[in-house]
Amino acid sequence: MSSPLPLPTTTRLVLLVMVAGAGAAFATWWWLVLGRDNWPHAQLACLPAAGAAPDAVLARFTGCVDDVRLAQSAVVLCGPLALSALAVLCRAAGRRLGLWRWRAAPDHTSPLAGRLAALVADEPGPRPVLWVRGRRVGVRARASGTVRRPLIVADSHVFALPARQTDAMLRHELGHIRLRDVGRVRLAASAWWLLLLAVTAPMAVALVRDPGLLGAGLLVRMAVVLAVVLLTLCAVLRVREHDADLAAVADPRAPEGETAAYLGAALPPRRAERVVRSLGLATHPTPAARLAVLGDPARSWGLSSAECLTTGLAAGLVFTDLALLVSAALPGHTQLAYSVAGLLTGWAVAGVVTVAWWRAVAVGHRDASAVRVAPAGAALGLGVLLGSQLTGRAAGDWVRDTGTVDGLATALSLTEVPPGQVLLLGLVLVVGGALFGLWSTALARSLGAAPSGPRSAPACAAAAGLSGLLLAVPLGSWFLCARLTAAGAAPDIRRAVVGTPWWVAGTVTAVAGAVVPVAAARARTWWSASPGPRRPRPLSPLIAAVVLVAAGAGRASFGGSPGGTPAEAPLTAPAASPAPAPSADADADTIVPPSQLPLFPSDPAQRNVMRKDTALVCRALSLGGTAQWTDPRRRSETAELLAGPDDLVLRAASDVLTGRPSGPVDTRALVASVLRCDLYFRYGR
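Above: the chain's sequence. Below: its structure in token form.
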């Protein structure tokens, strides 16, 4: 218990709060953005009222729409912030409400208060105060309060217990206070209840009343996510009890065997408790499990495949909304935005699994062996895949079913994707997760992970930071490829995410940087095997690795050529733009090969009339797909098509294409045309 390494309850609870925040962000977008038709007044105000240079018209229009999207993202971000503030308030109010409901009162004069004062007589910091309940006899005692004002609330019948059992019970609650897990646990529990009552329940009522095309998928996903979060929270609560038991045993003044005798005297679980435990909803482990951990404390420092699976689920849920918010802040740099989202999510994942594997290696846990790490890492990758499909964004084709492409809607569902492509995406994640797990444990072994000393917390923190950098580009690229696959993008567009020399060079640099600390530690071990061994310094190769991986990740995030910007790359431009605009006939809204596109009538008069119809022009752009822009031979046809309607944005795009008939596609013309057609189809203007 004196190890500076973070305990399992800390990082897992943080990840649970992040999942609740992702749910709040989605609900905020649902109510305040999509529920208000994506703010039509702000969107239509972006239409230019007077002519100007074509480049200026496109820049002003797309810039205005990007500003609207950024404002929408700021509103969406208020959801998680409001959830966090409410969770803090609910935690404080719940503590006071519980004391009032239990009719608890402070006790300073009873023998039990004297025993508590004797247990903490030599400890620095605030002394916990004993409160005695007048109701709800049977819960015995629990830690409460804050770090500055800790409390131990006990039932009145505790006075009748033997002194040895009373001391063991109080030491257990003092263990919770010393570990400072009371506030974190209450905060996570409050976040779960808020996710249920303030987010899920109102959305469920709205979907039941008006399900629409996405109602069934959303309801199922919300139920599954709530169940996963609840099961994970209960698992963390059980681990928390093991930590408090070990903290009680670590007290140097505790008699030997006191905590074990207290646990052994516990009554066997009743039938109802056994049913709850079989469902995974028990918040306390069985006395047998607690005694087993006391006999071998390293048992609680493992990382099972189930925990990796739930961590991957949380990462998949968090990444989706996070990537859309970052993309709104970085318009025109989608690949960079996805890498930034991958970096933030990767650090959250590393804070759980990398730290856990470091702990397991430090104590020689069997979960750190290769035969267990590889399946656990594969479960982590599988969890990311499942989490990406359990998010509300994957409930259906939001672009098609809500009629918007310029907001925070997107298509992420892989249910209508050919099975071979889904299998390939899943295989990449599973294999990548297994390799990441093996690399994490190899790094910990090479750097001599230890429960204490310089190779504990400092080296573990550096390893977690390096792991987040290493996951940034792979996670971001995978989610971007999955999004393009779900949207039915052409194969060359999907390959462009990872097919540029710049991306390959950056990835190779990042992987080489990840190998540096392992190779350096192995070389140092071999060199120090000679007489006069030297003390290993794990932070020096880690610092070099962080520099290399950061440089490689930054290079790969742009995905273009060294001499150009992401917006000028010929193949990544379609990936950085929204999906093709939808039409009224959703079933026919698919990409059609150029040879099968309908032709305009041969009569010039009829052709001119049709070319002036904005709906027909936008429909032709939707059917043409990316071939309208990436094929230089069809660029003039697209320019002629856009010049027909009496619309300043489309005509400016036509002028840009006419002035640049060859070379890389100008993404401003592409993005502006798609956004303009989106506004026309949604608002009729």
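The longest helix spans residues 54-101.
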